[in-house]
Input
Amino acid sequence: MSTDRVDAESKVSGNQANIPARIRRELDIDDGDQLRWHLEDDGTVRVHVVQRRSGTFSDFDGYEGAEATDVTADHDMWGVDAE
Output
């Protein structure tokens, strides 16, 4: 009899497996987070959770230039010098 602790189980369906709710809560896994899988030489698997907690523009405070802009007209020309 094995003495390994079983925290939760899930079934594989096709090529996907669900992460049990208890594990998701404990590790604070949310939509958009990534899982990095590491297969050890002894056959054990380690999973590292990479949490996505901010968007691409999360630190963007906005445009503070002297000129007013019109996003619908200026979007594609932003940063391009007019000739």
Q: What stands out?
A: The first strand starts at residue 12 and ends at 13. Residues 21-27 form the longest helix (7 residues). The beta strands are 12-13, 16-17, 34-39, 45-50. The CA atoms of residues 38 and 46 lie 5 Å apart.
